[in-house]
């Protein structure tokens, strides 16, 4: 059966002349700090109303305000967006918000808790199929009632995630986190072999990548696509090597799984033909494709 397209998710946006409940809640708690982005702002009602109150806030919505931000923000709000997206689309939003958040900043996700039935339904005004789902994300919950839940998100390296001594479970704040999803994060390598060298790291503490649950493996490769997109824009490399080390005999030093995304540039090596086959120099096949 062909999966139904979710192209009408933007139709769930509504016009308002008052602040949304999550915006009022964060305003009362004094959580709207610094430069603010409303990600998935719909018609931009919260943006306009908060601007009138003197807040430095801009909005982004792929349908209504499609100019993608080109800066970082102290606070990002994302209200009732995840509930109208498929899982892969939700993961993409989490990664984009993480990438746009300044180190030490905070993002707030509001999701509906009054959805009785998941799936597609005909929109009562537009008569188009719109999608709704129950959404839970593994971030800190700061409010929960029968209608709404609000999560607070900070970058993975601004938290204490485990009592073990693994630096991939508790990465240093000085390292730059590139993006993050529910089950993985990507950081610039502390000892890069090229400009823009990134590690994609599953949050589950496990040494062998192949022992990860399939969904978490898939999340890592979805993140690899996002990382490639970001690096291509920021560094304009001429190619990439992507791979992993599994077990010590294959060169794994940190016993926590990771995937290397290494940008390549013309002239960065004496002999680049052979690509991944060059990992064992004596067995390199020069004419391989």
TrEMBL record:
Annotated InterPro entries: AP-4-A_phosphorylase (IPR052908), HIT-like (IPR011146), HIT-like_sf (IPR036265), SAM-dependent_MTases_sf (IPR029063)
UniProt xrefs under Gene3D superfamilies: HIT-like, Vaccinia Virus protein VP39
GO molecular function, one term: catalytic activity
Superkingdom: Bacteria
Domain HIT: residue ranges: 164-271
Matches recorded under SUPFAM superfamilies: HIT-like, S-adenosyl-L-methionine-dependent methyltransferases
Name the record gives this protein: Histidine triad (HIT) protein
């Amino acid at each position: 059966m062909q999966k139904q397209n979710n192209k009408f998710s933007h139709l769930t946006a509504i016009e308002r002349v008052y602040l949304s409940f999550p915006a009022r809640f964060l305003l009362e708690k004094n959580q709207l700090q610094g430069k603010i982005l409303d990600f998935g702002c719909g018609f931009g009602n919260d943006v306009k109303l908060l601007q009138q109150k003197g807040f430095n806030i801009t909005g982004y919505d792929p349908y209504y305000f499609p100019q993608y931000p080109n800066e970082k923000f102290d606070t990002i709000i994302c209200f009732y967006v995840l509930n109208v997206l498929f899982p892969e689309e939700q993961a993409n939003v989490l990664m984009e918000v993480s990438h746009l958040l300044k180190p030490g900043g905070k993002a707030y996700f509001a999701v509906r808790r009054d959805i009785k039935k998941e799936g597609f339904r005909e929109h009562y005004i537009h008569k188009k199929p719109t999608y709704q789902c129950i959404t839970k994300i593994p971030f800190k919950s700061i409010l929960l009632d029968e209608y709404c839940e609000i999560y607070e998100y900070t970058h993975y390296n601004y938290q204490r995630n485990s009592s073990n001594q693994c630096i991939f479970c508790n990465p240093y704040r000085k390292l730059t986190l590139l993006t993050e999803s529910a089950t993985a994060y990507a950081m610039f390598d502390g000892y890069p072999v090229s400009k823009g060298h990134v590690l994609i790291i599953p949050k589950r503490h496990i040494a062998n990548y192949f022992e990860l649950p399939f969904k978490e493996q898939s999340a890592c490769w979805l993140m690899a696509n996002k990382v490639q997109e970001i690096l291509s824009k920021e560094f304009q490399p001429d190619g990439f090597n992507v791979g992993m080390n599994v077990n010590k005999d294959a060169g794994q030093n940190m016993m926590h799984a990771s995937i290397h995304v290494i940008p390549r540039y013309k002239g960065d090596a004496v002999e680049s033909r052979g690509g991944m086959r060059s990992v064992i120099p004596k067995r390199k096949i020069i004419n391989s494709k």
